[in-house]
Structures are given as structure tokens and as C-alpha cells.
Design brief:
single chain; 94 residues; mainly beta; 4-stranded antiparallel beta sheet; 4 strands; 5% helix
């Protein structure tokens, strides 16, 4: 199930999501991908009819900061594969 971000939700959508990013070190929006960046991402799933928070997921990421490297810098994310929608919502079988 796809859950739109709040700013893209349409009339009739049952749920929406809100994502916040907090930089811990560096700047996550920087175009300098080799610079060390560590940040925290939080995604909340809300029920649209009453704006009730149903659940959240938190992840951390690190990018860049490697010694000189001529290729793309390394990056890591924890947890690696997180689907917050599937963790919070269970689709009804029809």
C-alpha cells in the first residue's frame, strides 16, 4: 500500500505520512556527497480522518567521510530495508 506524504495527499486518502530529517553531523541536503554526513530520519503514518498517529519508524544513515577515493563514497543505513507502511498498516483481504 502506498501512503502519500501529507503535502501530496488527495481527498479520499485514508492515510498520509510525515517525514522529518535531523542532521547529526554535516548537512544531509549537501551536494558534496564525499563530506561526512550523519542524519536521523523519522517517518510517521497518520490516519487522515482524525490525524491520529498510528506508528513511526526511525532510521539512521551515514554518507561520505571516506579517505580520498576516486569512486562514489560509501554510505550505510540502519535498518537497511525498512518499510514503515507495512510495519504499521495491514491491508484487508477482500
Amino acid at each position: 500500500m502506498d501512503v502519500p506524504f501529507k503535502r501530496f495527499r488527495k481527498k479520499g486518502d485514508e492515510f498520509y505520512s510525515v517525514m522529518t530529517v535531523k542532521d547529526i553531523r554535516g548537512h544531509s541536503g549537501s551536494s558534496d556527497v564525499s563530506a561526512l554526513t550523519v542524519y536521523r530520519t523519522e517517518i510517521g503514518i497518520y490516519r487522515a480522518k482524525d490525524d491520529k498517529l498510528l506508528g513511526t519508524a526511525v532510521g539512521y544513515a551515514r554518507r561520505g567521510g571516506d579517505p580520498f577515493w576516486q569512486f562514489h563514497p560509501s554510505s550505510y543505513r540502519c535498518p537497511e530495508n525498512q518499510n514503515v507502511t507495512n510495519s504499521v498498516l495491514v491491508e484487508k483481504k477482500r
